[in-house]
């Protein structure tokens, strides 16, 4: 729904309101609203903002890129999904950052299978993105997902093969590469939420919820009626 409404001239505060209405109209509640004190239903993070951006009344402009991170709670479980959108005409180097980050998500998902370990996923994402000269954020990671929004294990987007918690059948995790065009370093704003790149260059963020079913990864956060195997 947000993908159909996000465009030049629209404010992130309007999109946040639409998202909350949509979530509640479908018998769910926004997972992020009030979580640790967060004031909105969506995290909206444009350009150099990495994650946890607070929606505001500034209209989106052509050339912007923006991560939209959404969570919903229904039937006792949370869902969590993020996508980075292009607004109008975006610089080629920024388009490439989004493309590589999105590809790295699926590179990582392929490593989520019985017998592998947490850092096998992170290592795959790190190698793929750093080969393009990008910075992999260290301080922010993916996570387990279920009756709580954030559960074990933490899912870093970096690491060494063969390290970390062993994956088992039925495990559900949120994998979410946060990749910067420049430095991997970040800083937090005075609002206590907004995270930006330390050098002011763009960042990209994509996220899927993935379950291990029959030993293999199956994406749960998809518009298809059933999950998709990778």
Outline:
This is Methionine aminopeptidase. This protein has helices spanning 2-5, 12-25, 92-109, 118-130; strands at residues 29-30, 42-46, 49-51, 65-74, 77-86, 135-136, 142-144, 151-155, 172-175, 178-180, 186-188, 195-197, 203-205, 208-213, 216-219, 228-229.
| CATH-assigned homologous superfamily | Creatinase/methionine aminopeptidase superfamily
Widest beta sheet: strand line-up:
8-7-9-14-15-16
| Backbone CA Rg | 17 Å
Q: Average pLDDT across residues? A: 96
In DSSP terms (H or I, runs of 4 or more residues), the helix count works out at 4
Strand content: 25-35%
Strand segment tally: 16
The computed structural class is alpha+beta
Amino-to-carboxy terminus distance: 25 Å
Morphology: globular
Which spans have pLDDT < 50 for at least 5 consecutive residues? none
Tell me the major beta sheet. Answer: 6 strands, antiparallel
- Oligomer description: single chain
Helix and strand element order: HHEEEEEHHEEEEEEEEEEE
Assign the CATH topology: Creatine Amidinohydrolase
Question: What is the CATH architecture term?
Answer: Alpha-Beta Complex
């Amino acid at each position: 729904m947000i993908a159909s409404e996000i465009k030049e001239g629209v404010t992130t505060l309007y999109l946040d309101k639409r998202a909350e209405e949509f979530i509640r109209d479908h018998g769910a509640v926004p997972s992020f609203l009030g979580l640790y004190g967060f004031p909105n239903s969506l995290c909206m993070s444009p350009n150099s903002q990495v994650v946890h951006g607070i929606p505001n009344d500034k209209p989106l402009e052509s050339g912007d890129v923006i991560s939209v991170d959404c969570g919903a709670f229904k039937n006792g479980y949370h869902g969590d999904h993020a996508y980075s959108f292009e607004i109008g005409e975006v610089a080629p180097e920024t388009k490439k950052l989004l493309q590589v980050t999105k590809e790295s998500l699926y590179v990582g998902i392929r490593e989520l299978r019985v017998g592998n370990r947490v850092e096998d996923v992170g290592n795959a994402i790190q190698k793929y993105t750093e080969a393009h000269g990008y910075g992999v954020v260290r301080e922010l990671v993916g996570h387990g997902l279920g009756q709580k929004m954030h559960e074990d294990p933490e899912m870093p987007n970096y690491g060494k093969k063969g390290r970390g918690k062993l994956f088992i059948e039925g495990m559900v995790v949120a994998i979410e590469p946060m990749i910067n065009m420049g430095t991997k370093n970040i800083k937090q704003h005075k609002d206590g939420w907004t995270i930006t790149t330390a050098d002011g260059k763009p960042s990209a963020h994509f996220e899927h919820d993935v379950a291990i079913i029959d030993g293999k990864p199956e994406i749960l956060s998809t518009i298809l009626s059933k999950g998709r195997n990778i």
